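Quarterly update, task 2.4: nicotinamide-adenine-dinucleotide-bound model.
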Amino acid sequence: MTMPAPAAQTRDTIQILLLENIHPSATETFNAFGEGRTYAITRKSGALKEDELIAALPGVQLLGIRSKTRVTARVLENAHDLLSVGCFCIGTNQVDLVAANARGVPVFNAPFSNTRSVAELMISEIIALARQLGDRSREVHDGVWKKVAAQCYEVRGKVLGIVGYGHIGRQLGVLAEAVGMRVFYHDIAARLPMGNNRSVPSLATLLAESDFVSLHVPETPETRKMIGAAELAKMRKGAYLLNASRGTVVDIPALVAALKDGHLAGAAIDVYPEEPESNTDKFKTELQNLPNVLLTPHIGGSTEEAQEAIGREVAAVLSKFAAMGATTGSVNFPQVELPPVKGTHRILNVHRNEPGVLRDVNRVVADLNANIDTQFLATEGAIGYLIMDLEQDVSAEVSRRIQALPSNIRTRVVY
Ligand SMILES: NC(=O)c1ccc[n+]([C@@H]2O[C@H](COP(=O)([O-])OP(=O)(O)OC[C@H]3O[C@@H](n4cnc5c(N)ncnc54)[C@H](O)[C@@H]3O)[C@@H](O)[C@H]2O)c1
Ligand SMILES: O=C(O)[C@H](O)COP(=O)(O)O
């Protein structure tokens, strides 16, 4: 597929759009990277809907989002100037990664900068559920004095079952043992157990043996509604469910039923199948006003520490991609990073992954009597990614001719 040439020349000003209240540390980091470029940064506090995003993207080269903004195939199709997308969060399910790969747009995230924040929230919620803290607090605010011990427990000695034993699951497992819990986990991949955490053979076993079940899987076709009526029925009577992964992982009507009929003793939910675009939108869920149900507005990763670190981390990888084509850490692209070589001229080319591309590119370079200083090509999925440093300043012409090759997806002169 041939892309229209980017409107803005990336040697000079880079246009950046940051949505969803990304931390100011991102702006500081972009500006610190400078290197002769100006970064023109536009910030917006909420997410944009698909049509709004399409309307906002002409001229934008770097887009920063969090978990809410959906970058669909249609958005990508219409974003001719877009070089890269930075998810200033862990999850990347909101971006069509395959479409972005096919269009030559690398997507980056911050894989563990908010891990600790989520794990700490979960520990606080496990204890809060065990002590019915949300209800007691609300009662006292309402002037009701209900000093009870019935159905309030210590967490020491109780079993925590973790579904998805990745970065967050493992960190939670460590913290849970520190407060005396026994920890079981279930994952589709083999994972090294932390401390005395134990792997169980199946999700069904984990559900049957846990007092608390905490979900830490990504949103995938397999995890969609992975906890429905049948799974809730397998949980122990009086157990608690916690979900801070993605809202689509739990069947909400089934959870409401399990809470109302007393099978579950409580739940803590941070994520929902439909979430508001911004803090000014109203929010409604069937889970509201049920006893011992803690509801939070997707704040698992919302701490000063996490947001500050994420702002720096993702802005740094986006800057490195804009400035020298580095894709290390990208979630949908071949991983290529070449240090700049003084006095050379760098071209980036994303092409269809088919035989003969390097031969054609090198013929273009040879026809212009140019010499290649460094060249690196890696492939992933449908695409190949080539970084090439030329000794002569013929990059504009080389780029024009490479763009005319049938294999070309997009070509950019970086310097
Ligand atoms: N509430 C929040 O604010 C918040 C913050 C950060 C992350 N998250 C969510 O938490 C998710 C997990 O984060 P992480 O950093 O631990 O990710 P991770 O990739 O490190 O770990 C996810 C684990 O889930 C496992 N997994 C995948 N599919 C599975 C399945 N069907 N059954 C069992 N295990 C499965 C993977 O093998 C992996 O070990 C993210 O994808 C994101 O959606 C939410
Ligand atoms: O994927 C994540 O890191 C979390 O869901 C946090 O998303 P947020 O940045 O939109 O709060």
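Highlight for this quarter: The two ends are 24 Å apart (CA to CA).
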